TrEMBL record:
UniProt GO molecular function: ATP binding
UniProt family annotation: Belongs to the ABC transporter superfamily.
Record flagged with keyword rRNA processing: no
Organism: Rhizobium oryzicola
Domain of life where this protein originates: Bacteria
Membrane-topology annotation of the record: Peripheral membrane protein
Keyword annotations from UniProtKB, A to Z: ATP-binding, Cell membrane, Membrane, Nucleotide-binding, Transport
Pfam families registered for this protein in UniProt: ABC_tran, oligo_HPY
Subcellular location: Cell inner membrane
Broad class of where this protein is predominantly found: membrane
Descriptive protein name: ABC transporter ATP-binding protein
């Protein structure tokens, strides 16, 4: 059996702050296979972005320390541990083997450089092609992400494009090296719903064409239902449940997942046609402060299924069946 494309094992990420150590990730386990889309869902502050930034090792400036393993299978089949990779090694991985797209394209686009030249730069850097070839590939990429008149658009600056078009440019830049893994952090949240659906279907099409794995961070369960093969639900720095998407919707086996789903409106396909996606609503209470985590299960203070035993220790990941795992002592009571 080949190794997974991405295999995160017991990842802990800590920040030193003035008020002490903040353990943002407390042992995250997560895998993404080639060609698979895994949605990472959970409320604000649960650790989704810190997970992706840890994989990309983009937290050095904030003084984060990372422990655990981030095993990544390179194109040549060699498995490396990104957690221990040098900065020079990471520069060969970022934008080449693993790319990332964000909610706000201007965080990755340079406002002073023409669109085509920016995309071409990634190709020159990693694919070692000359300027003319890189420009040609950049224009091909603009066409692939369905930007009309790609030769003309290559010559303009990012601010001259609409939000949706900028998002397409960022996707073109992220995918020009045909990465094995794309990390998408809420890439469509800031866009209006019709454009969101267009971008999502674009990502899905390109994923099939390139055969890449996608780790898709979202608040939106409608997006999950549309796009994901698997779902990992995060709560307070841990993955509390993971399973195939249909399993998560049919048999949620963690009270937090049940809470997320019960607050989700039924997917209305006619509404979808009108470009409306259901949004995830809030569960009463809030994510615990990572500086003062509760003992035992972090969801216990908000949980209507709690037992005395839930306060004693952090529950392990129980095997619900197949590849479905839940970090709840009462997973079997929740079934059905
Ligand atoms: N640079 C930092 N210094 C200290 N704490 C941080 C830092 N970055 C993130 N954190 C903390 O880590 C926790 C996880 O944050 P993260 O941004 O990953 O959450 P998230 O699930 O992505 O939320 P959102 O959906 O709002 O983006 C939060 O409690 C946050 O305050």
């Amino acid at each position: 059996m080949t190794d997974p494309l991405l295999d995160i094992r017991h990842l802990t990420t800590e920040f030193q702050t003035e008020s002490g150590t903040v353990r943002a990730l407390k042992g995250v386990d997560l895998t993404v296979e080639s060609g698979q889309t895994v949605a990472l869902v959970g409320e604000s502050g649960s650790g989704k972005s810190v997970t992706s930034l840890s994989v990309m090792r983009l937290l050095a400036r904030s003084g984060a320390s990372i422990n655990g393993e981030i095993r990544f299978r390179r194109r040549d089949g060699v498995v490396i541990d990104l957690a221990g990779e040098s900065e020079a090694g990471m520069r060969r991985v970022r934008g080449n083997e693993i790319s990332m797209i964000f909610q706000e394209p201007m965080t990755s686009l340079n406002p002073t450089v023409k669109v085509g030249a920016q995309i071409a730069e990634a190709a020159r850097l990693h694919l070692k092609v000359d300027r003319r070839e890189a420009q040609r590939r950049a224009i091909d990429m603009l066409a692939l992400v369905e930007i009309p008149d790609p030769e003309l658009r290559a010559e303009i600056y990012p601010h001259q494009l609409s939000g949706g078009m900028r998002q397409r440019v960022m996707i073109a830049m992220a995918l020009i090296c045909r990465p094995a893994l794309l990390i998408a952090d809420e890439p469509t949240t800031a866009l209006d719903v019709t454009v969101q659906l267009q971008i999502l279907s674009l990502i899905r099409r390109l994923q099939k064409e390139i055969g890449m794995g996608v780790l898709f961070i979202t608040h939106n369960l409608g997006v999950v239902a549309e796009l994901a093969d698997r779902v990992a639900v995060m709560y307070a720095g841990r993955v509390v449940e993971q399973a195939e998407t249909s399993e998560i919707f049919k048999r949620p086996s963690h009270p937090y997942t049940r809470g997320l789903l019960s607050s989700m409106p039924v997917i209305d396909y006619e509404a979808r046609e009108r470009g409306q996606l259901p949004r995830l609503r809030e569960i009463p209470g809030s994510v615990p402060d990572p500086a003062v985590p509760p003992p035992g299960c972090a969801f216990e203070p908000r949980c209507s299924w709690r037992l005395e035993a839930c306060r004693a220790e952090v529950p392990p990941l129980f095997d619900v069946g197949g590849t479905h795992r839940s970090r709840c002592l009462r997973w079997s009571d929740l079934d059905g």
